Structure formats: structure tokens, C-alpha cells
Amino acid sequence: MESTRSLRKDWWLRAVAVLAHPRTTFAALRDDSDEAAEARQEPILAIVFLAGIAGMLSTSLAGQLLDDASFDDLNVVLWAFIGGGIYGALVYFVGGLFVYALGHGIGARCSFRQARHVVGLASVPLVVSLVLVWPARLAIYGDDVFRSGGSDTGVGDKLFEALVAASFVWSLALVAVGLIELRKASSSASSIP
Fold first, then answer.
1. Contacts of 65 (CB under 8 A, 6+ apart)
2. Phi, psi for 177 (deg, rounded to 5)
3. Is 109 within a domain?
4. How many Å apart are CA 125 and CA 67, to the nearest integer?
5. Does 126 map to a domain?
6. How far is 134 from 163, CA to CA, in rounded Å?
């Protein structure tokens, strides 16, 4: 019981550490036992859900939601929350399938679960954008973020868009690191007699 609790705590810490020490975090995915996978499921679920919200807010549709007079701020929150959950789950499973196929193409013998967990952990930069970029953007531009035109045009808004785009690029880079680490695990396993 104590080891399970300790393992869960380790995975919550690794979920944050993936930003600074991605190789170490992804190397820990080599343990694909049911106990290890169960320990990392809660942090990955939280990451996927929050990253899904960040993804929804990053769509071009989000910038036009309040153009419709029947939409208000509560509708935007519900749209981001519910849509974010669906979007996050879709990216988690479809992205996991893509990473699984790509991993097998490069010689990484990984499970579909490991591939999904790579996608989940690689989504942490999107969570960072949700926690740091979006509050600042909303504080500066308010509801205009969800309307066409308005005060959220110009250099400032382009900077926010660049930061959000950078979080997506960072996530893709983390997927690559995750694949490399899983391939290393396959290479070292095949060299053992």
C-alpha cells in the first residue's frame, strides 16, 4: 500500500519534471506493469483534460464564440470545459495510436498504453499555456478574446498566439523525446542475451 502511494506521488512529480527532465520522465515509462500504469493514470488524466481545454481555447472558433448573441461567458466556460474533455480524450487516443504506429516504425517495442502515456506527458506544455498564458491574455483583453475584432488585435495578441503555438511545438518535441526513450528501452532489451 505504501509503495503504491509512493509510486503515485512520484508520477505527480514526474508530470511536472517532464518540462525540465524529459528523458528521465519518459525513461520511467519503460515500466509498463499494471501497478506503474495505474500510478500514472491520475496525473495523465489531469494533464489530458487540461491540455484539451487549452487546445479548445486555441481554436479559431474560440475567437468568435461571443459573436453569437445567444452565447455568454458561462457558455464559453462550459464549451471549453466539456469540449476540452472531449478534445483531450480524442487527441490522447488518436495521438496515442499515431505514436504507437510511429514507435513500431522506428523499432520501439512499446505498448499502446505507453504510447498514450507519451502523448499525455508530452501535453504538459499545453497545461502550462493554460495556466500562465491564458489568464494573462484574459486579464488584458477580457471578453474580446472570444469576439472578432476588438482590443485583442495587434502585436500583443500576436505575442500571446506565438506563446500558445510554442507550447504546441514544445509538446511535439516532447513526443519525439518520448519515442527516443522508448526506442532506447527496446534496443537495450534486445541486446540482453
1. 71, 75, 76, 79, 146, 147
2. -65, -40
3. yes
4. 29
5. yes
6. 10
